[in-house]
Amino acid sequence: MHASVDLTRRDLFVVSLQMLFRRRGNWWFMLAVACGVLAYFWSEHGMRSVGVFLFATLASCMVALGTLLGAFLGNFACFLLSVNKDGGVLGRHAFSISPAGLSEATAVNTSHHAWSGIKAISTLDNYIVIMMNSQAAHVLPRRAFASDDAAIAFVEQAMAFKKAAAVLQPVSHDQHVPE
Predict the structure, then answer these.
(1) Nearest to residue 95, comparing CAs of 85, 77, 114, 110?
(2) Structural domains in the chain plus CATH codes
(3) From CA 144, how far away is CA 97, in angstroms rounded?
(4) Which of 103, 100, 102, 90 lies closest to 141 in space, CA to CA?
(5) DSSP label at 144?
(6) 3: which strand partners?
(7) Residues in CB range of 10: below 8 A, 6 or more apart
């Protein structure tokens, strides 16, 4: 199966924003910030009543959310300013899947990933996201397909290929990976 699409900055922003609260690490980050702010408030002002405690807890959560969104927007702004069509991130991407894996081609590179090297395949509102690891993904907007049924068929086939590859080559957790 094949799909081709022009990726834009908007695509990357929308997918990153939709993934923001799906990432477990972001929840841990917000918890740590909220606990830190709550502990600071408690040490400076004490908790004289339940109302003060609830206010401090709500304020801590708002600070944590603001911190996460501020970090996201700052980092993403830097990322968007650094990517262009010449680097292969934006522009035309051609994807194909086969029992051997996922292949992708742009004007500047071609890559192939065996199914065993793909962490997850998921869908968002208007995107298919193929996670290579916790930090890198291939993004396929649904507009790359002639219909929603074609997009669903692509995802189902990719998942079937990944599952079949896992059965054929089970991953051993006992193997040592050189550093």
Answers:
(1) 110
(2) 2-8+91-168 (2.30.29.30), 9-82 (no CATH)
(3) 14
(4) 90
(5) G
(6) 95
(7) none
